[in-house]
Write a structure and sequence with these properties.
Elements lengths: L1 E8 L9 H14 L3 E9 L9 H12 L6 E4 L2 H4 L3 H15 L2 E4 L11 H34 L11 E5 L5 E5 L1 H15 L4 H11 L8 H7 L6 E5 L5 E5 L8 H15 L3 H4 L8 E2 L7 E6 L4 E6 L7 E3 H14 L4 H18 L1 H29 L5 H42 L3 H5 L4 H11 L4 E4 L4 E4 L3 H12 L1
Parallel strand pairs: 1-2, 1-3, 3-4, 9-13
Antiparallel strand pairs: 5-6, 7-8, 10-11, 11-12, 13-14
Helix pairs in contact: 5-13, 6-7, 12-14, 13-14
Length: 484
């Protein structure tokens, strides 16, 4: 009887499963049951959740070419074969039906019957356990990545201007490359000076900029890593930024100005659309929605609303917006409504601040680790295992990094306090919908207007007034009843 062996090593398993140990176990199994081992296949550093592996594909090719000559596929353990329950059972069934090959591990008898209910349940349980361990590994990896980012660490391949290295705690950190950083600095300063992206590309390449491809300069200008910031998605799915522990190449303010400039270039018409706050809400007396557009005057552009069916009706935007603001200011909020809105807003703000609190916990853990390193350093110095120069060098580095982390924690705590205070002040000074409306961005204003004034506005040109049906009162009364 002939057999082939299969070995797999993932990056996380090297301390427990070496390729040599797997090969020895497979060879001993073949000797024990008098099997002729005709081939060995090994995947080094391949995923366990898929069979799309380099050497496993070679194994399947060997099986197809030598169909009927091999009776067994031997693995050290079933989790070396796969950690995906459904994929593993399906692949075992395919190998047995198409090629007559039985998959066995070294701790199973050679005459095991996979169709036996007890054997099937036992094998399925082992694959389910391996699958659960795979899910645990992924969860631990996600938690580790999130914690590293909350600590301000960049965990991927270093971008141009940096190289990957290790800090005093032995963890990954970005180390500045002086020559490349100089080029990045020049790219930002030139762009702020008004130089075009094409000219920037030629200039940077002459200095030694090695990145190629369409938009490579834009990618550099959009990369927050150069401003010392680490991006991550919070629990609410919103993209946020953490102060990194690596050295920044450009200042945060310069980076923000560059982003605004890039955004203005991509969306040159966005500023115009922001003024059309009543588009889709304002109606003509005929019942049709009015469109908005700019009209050129002698010195500047003026906003007008116009009915497509009554061309003579041109309403100045400043007049309509003024009337709209008066309406919003007349919509007073009762103390009960303000209390309800404060409660809901405070709840949402607390949820948004969870990521900041997680970042504080991660930074505090770093401070604890640094304290342990300092204590260990002092103990070695007292016991004369370290000379003074070495002790002084590392003590200064540990304490400097500790001070930096403490300052970041203090800033984060202050930021949380400020945000909560802003919410308090907002609802102390807000008494109408107009007060809240003035604090919103254009999109939020549009959504609020369409929610409160669901039926829109009708412009009565004869009396120069806005007629509207107010949905807000129904909404206010409904949420007050629900809250009670």
């Amino acid at each position: 009887m002939k057999a082939i062996g299969y070995m797999r090593l993932s990056f996380k398993d090297q301390s427990r499963y070496s390729l040599d140990a797997q090969e020895t176990s497979i060879r001993n199994y073949c000797l024990r049951y008098n099997l002729e081992l005709v081939a060995l296949f090994k995947d080094n550093g391949q995923l366990s959740s898929t069979f799309n592996r380099i050497d496993f594909k070679a194994l399947e090719s060997y099986i197809r070419k030598n169909k009927g000559e091999v009776q067994y596929l031997v693995v050290m353990d079933h989790d070396r074969f796969s950690r995906d329950l459904s994929e593993a059972l399906s692949k075992i069934c395919t190998l047995e039906k198409l090629y007559g090959i039985k998959v066995v591990s070294v701790d199973e008898p050679i005459d095991i019957d996979p169709t036996n209910p007890t054997a099937f349940i036992s094998r399925a349980f082992r694959y389910a356990t391996a699958n659960a361990e795979l899910l645990n590994i992924r969860a631990r990896t996600r938690r580790g990545i999130k914690r590293a980012r909350l600590e301000g660490r960049f965990i991927n391949k270093a971008p141009f201007g940096y190289r990957n290295g290790r800090d005093i705690l032995g963890k990954g950190i970005l180390i500045l490359e002086a020559n490349e950083a100089k080029i990045v600095r020049k790219i930002f300063s030139d762009y702020l000076s008004g130089i075009s992206l094409l000219e920037l590309t030629h200039s940077a390449q002459q200095m030694g900029f090695c990145l190629v491809g369409h938009g490579c300069i834009k990618r550099v200008l959009s990369n927050c890593i150069y401003a010392g910031l680490i991006p991550f998605r919070g629990d609410d799915g919103v993209l946020k930024y953490v102060k990194g522990i690596h050295e920044a190449i450009v200042g945060e303010q310069d980076f923000i100005i560059v982003q605004e400039k890039l955004c203005a270039t991509r969306q040159s018409n966005l500023k115009v659309d922001r003024e059309f706050v009543l588009k889709g809400l304002l109606k003509c007396h005929c019942g049709k929605h009015m469109t908005a557009a700019w009209s050129k005057g002698r010195t500047k552009y003026y906003l007008y609303y116009q009915c497509m069916y009554h061309r003579s009706l041109n309403v100045p935007g400043v007049v309509v917006h003024d009337r709209f603001g008066q309406i919003l200011n007349t919509l007073r909020l009762t103390p009960q409504q303000i209390a309800y809105l404060y409660k809901e807003t405070r709840c949402q703000v607390d949820m948004a601040l969870n990521d900041e609190r997680s970042q504080i916990d991660a930074r505090k853990q770093m401070i604890v680790e640094l304290n342990e390193r300092i204590d260990s350093l002092e103990e070695h110095f007292i016991e004369r295992r370290l000379d003074f120069n070495t002790f002084d060098k590392w003590s200064k580095r540990y304490r400097s990094d500790q001070k930096k982390q403490e300052e970041i924690v203090e800033d984060l705590l202050g930021n949380i306090e400020v945000q909560l205070m802003v919410v308090e002040q907002l609802f102390k000074t807000s008494s109408s919908i107009g007060d809240i409306y003035s604090l919103l961005n254009p999109l939020q204003r549009l959504l609020l207007g369409r929610y409160i004034f669901r039926h829109g506005f009708t412009w009565e040109n004869g009396e120069q007034q806005i007629v509207y049906r107010l949905h807000y009162l129904l909404v206010a009364s409904s949420f007050m009843k629900r809250d009670c």
